[in-house]
Amino acid sequence: MDIKTSIAEIARVLRDRPKMIFLENPGYDTYKTYIKGFLLGLEAANDTKILLKMTLWFQKKLNIEAKYHWTEMIPILYKDKSDDELKAILHQTLIDYAEEEL
Length: 102
Fold this sequence. Notes:
single chain, mainly alpha
């Protein structure tokens, strides 16, 4: 399975069937940790720097410069959003990257 398909599949599962992965209703930090771990696994399996590429893409897309990973920037940039809204932004960002860059 290629990287784009892997990301699309995990995004679908997180959206449609999150209880396959999480026992309870997780907060933003849990989603962030899971996604980072998943992407690190893709990096190791495919010898790529997807986390760095996503961070640079995210910064370019929002026209910002930061020394943080893209998942760390979301709560900073959207500090007025609820935890559920932050999870939705995280999820959509993952999908957008896969569609635009892979």
